[in-house]
Hints:
Layout: E1 3-5, E2 22-26, E3 32-41, E4 44-49, H1 58-62, E5 65-70, E6 73-82, E7 91-105, E8 111-112, E9 116-121, E10 127-136, E11 139-142, E12 153-158, E13 167-176, E14 182-189, H2 191-220
Amino acid sequence: MRLRRNKPQQSRLVALPERGEAVAITTSGGGHIPARVLERDGDTLLVAAVVPIKPFSAEDLEGMLLHFNNPNGRIRLRGDFVVENPQEPDVVRLREASEIEVLQEREYVRLRASRPVLVYRAGDQMEVPSYTVDLSGGGLLLAGPDNLKPDDEVQFRLMIQSGKPPVSGKGRVVRIDAQGRRAIEFADISELDRRRLVRFIFECQRSERQRGLTGKDANNG
């Protein structure tokens, strides 16, 4: 995996998300809220949460960030967030988006691993147990389930380690291979969960390399 972080820049703005584009809002308290852009005007955005939420506190607005994807990578914006209409507490305006972080992800390491995962298809919310064939920081390859079709949106809860919270988020079915396995691309996953997953993959690969070296040493002895 090759990652490059660009330091926040004050003098230059990257392209903002378009009207109607799916984005996410995070708060200083750790909240992660899927949202959508209602309006775009210069460096100002009007953004609405797409799930029920409690009214934002002053602290929430102060530490708020907006996340979205574009061809350059995953973009994180800071700025002046305000709720203009108390009757619409789920709608915020972002002005002067001036601090930007770009996380460029050119390649994720993929690990062949069978891990239990619960999948919920958007709309019916029916829980379907499955397991991974392989996984990476950008998605999963699932052994089924048969009821998922290309472009289906799903929620998932992936158990990577016993006794630890699952890695959870949202994704989209991007392909079905000849064996009927479903490739899920992550669409919405917290930075913490993505880091946990990438760390798990690296630790598994390191353990495999160490076992391989130990096996060779034993054979040579």
